[in-house]
Amino acid sequence: MADGSRSPHLTTREWQVLALIYEGLTNEQIGERLGISRDGVKYHVSGILSKLQVTDRLDAARWYAQSGGRQQSFAAIPMVLTLTRLFRQPRSAIPLAAATLIGIVAIVLVTLESRSSTGPAVDDTGSIVALDVAPEQPAEERRTPPPAPMRAPRYVTVWNLPDAPSGSHASRDGTKAIEPALIKATLAGDAGAVRRLTAAGPGPAILYDVESESSAFCETPEDLCFWALPLLAVHGRDYWAVISSGLAVDDEGGPYAQYVSVYEKLPDGSWSDELVRRSLTEPYCGVGCSGELFGVAWTWQGTGVLSAAPGERIRNGITSMPVAASEGETRGWLFLQGLPWMATSGSVFYALQYDPSEVTLKIVASNLHRRWAGELRDLDGDDLPEVVINEGDAYAFGGASGIDEQFMRLLRWRDGDLVEVDLALPGGLPSGVAETVREALSFAEAGLWVDARISASSAAARVPKNEDVQWLARRIGLITSSRLDQTARAGERAEGRNQRYDHDVLIAILVMAGDYDGALAHLESLPVRETWLPGANLGPNGDPLRDPRAGGHILNYTTRALEIVSSRAEVHALRALGLVMSQKPDYAAAVDELEIAVELDPTSAFFAEVLGLLRDEANR
Questions:
Q1: What would be the CATH architecture of the domain defined by 498-618?
Q2: Could you tell me if 239 and 231 are in contact, meaning their C-beta atoms sit under 8 angstroms apart?
Q3: What is the CA radius of gyration of the chain?
Q4: CA distances from residue 126 to 186, 356, 480 in whole angstroms, order as listed
Q5: So what's the pLDDT on residue 280?
Q6: What are the DSSP calls for 302-362, one per residue?
């Protein structure tokens, strides 16, 4: 066993992993804590055992205890990382940097040690779960009052119009005139009136009380459905929303288009005429504007609210809830998530706001995506869920791969409205915190999401009452977690099929998450000659064995990363891989990158072996 008084050269990440080995965590738990893949953890554990000259984790933990490492606060790791990156700067900048940060480090160490923190972490929903945030503000200081419970649809009328596929709408003309009465009968929950109104049409419609029915509704393109649910009760007035499903085969618009409308329940129990209507089949605009989605019919089959346990995803449903604004006005919010007719994947998401004082119904956010478009997630634990919009590239590796380039937009509540959390520097921050936030944003811009999360969480821990920094850290954590989730999926495919294509995709996904340690660990596990030499790219018939998109992503991300982390050997090595993965490998440029990697890490036998192979190939 190694002498505990002698301190081997462990990297910052290896010290982190060693501290968690001492705590008794498994590789999977360490990966979750640090936000890196299991392959990345295995890579670091192997390096630790080698450098400490020990044979197992127990001996490594004993060495850590004898070295006094257990007295170091793991919560200070984000600051240690900041110092490590800073001291990579030119020597002339070190004295001033050290003088500036020594005092901050001492304060942070004492504060974090007293709180027994184990450092910031982000769970699989994107929430910061180990961030030293101050207790919840008193109720009078809250910007958004506590929410009322979210509500699901109460009634739905399902009207089957079987002549739709013929393309003739003549037989439907008689149904158009009764639509207003049919909607009011739906609002009232009057099943008898619904049957009477539709008895002379193509077939009688059926009204369902959703609270007593457990099945899905509106299941075919021939079903015209009207959902009714309470939207807002304020100042003695009771407003309800109606969602029309439209018909997938109806391209003529009118009453068969998809729309949302608002009605008021009057004191005598009757219903007002339609107060306002918003079409759901107009051109798409995006987040933060008033556009809608064009030309696609969607089905709203869900019977429950759009809330889910962490790790689950609701793909279909309707939800409403009232939200009070700071000026005392309360507005009704409606959230829709639907599936396309006759398609195997994809979804649409809408967030709409009804303002009774202005009698307006506007779309605050909408999105269309091949996989999932958006959802509600409570990221700060106040029971008022935020809106997460998926704007990732579903075709990063082809639509059938199931692997996306994840990128999330986040809308949070402020003064009763949804506002977007921008990846931008908030104003009015202390200089040290501002610098850490700038660092996080630089990492994010370069695609170094694991590093961005560490820096953002460090900044958030230092200003726990600054909402803008807290939400910025949550959004960065959300994106990072979603990308690391993709690495797990890609890893299962690579392990299950063991095809070169899948291994390339896994390495690319790890790079796109900023987990260069994990990417290098997986690369080292593959046969060197088959991975790096020309025959690796083409099969016996000249067919490509690799996906050039994976190589393109690796080149793109490593190029951006090297603009700010040029001293990381693993980034240079992975850029070399990207250079040899194309149909026309650039071995001369790959040799240049490997030479830099060897210079930065002369102890790596892997770098030296690959460099030798590439030199031979480049000289042919």
A1: Alpha Horseshoe (1.25)
A2: yes
A3: 29
A4: 39, 34, 8
A5: 79
A6: --S-S---TT----SEEEEEEEE-TTS-EEEEEEEEEEETT-SS-EEEEEEEEETTTTEEE
Q: Which of 457, 490, 507, 525 is nearest to 33 (CA)?
A: 457
Which amino acid is it at 82?
A: T
C-alpha to C-alpha distances, 211 to 184, 214, 379, 395, nearest whole angstrom: 19, 8, 28, 39
Mean pLDDT per 10-residue segment, the chain (620 residues) = 57 85 82 77 79 80 72 36 39 40 40 35 34 32 49 86 50 67 95 90 83 70 85 92 74 61 95 92 44 48 46 61 76 84 66 94 86 84 86 73 81 91 94 95 95 94 94 95 84 77 88 93 90 61 63 93 94 94 86 95 94 88
Q: In the chain, which residues fall in CATH 1.10.10.10? A: 12-115
Strand-by-strand arrangement of the 386-390 sheet: 374-377, 386-390, 408-414, 417-420
Predicted local distance difference test score (pLDDT) of residue 144: 44
Report DSSP letters for 152-184, one per residue: ---EEEEEE-TTGGGS--GGGHHHHTTHHHHHH
Domain 12-115 has CATH 1.10.10.10: yes
DSSP 3-state of 127: coil
Instruction: Supply the pLDDT for residue 398.
Output: 67
Please, are residues 229 and 318 in contact by the beta-carbon 8 Å criterion? yes
CB 223 within 8 A of CB 160: yes
Q: What are phi and psi of 238, to 5 degrees?
A: -120, 110
Residue 431 is predicted with a pLDDT of 93
For 84-109, letters b (16+ CB in 10 Å) and e give ebbeeeeeeeeeeeeeebeebeeebb
pTM: 0.72
Q: Where in the chain is the domain with CATH 1.25.40.10?
A: 498-618
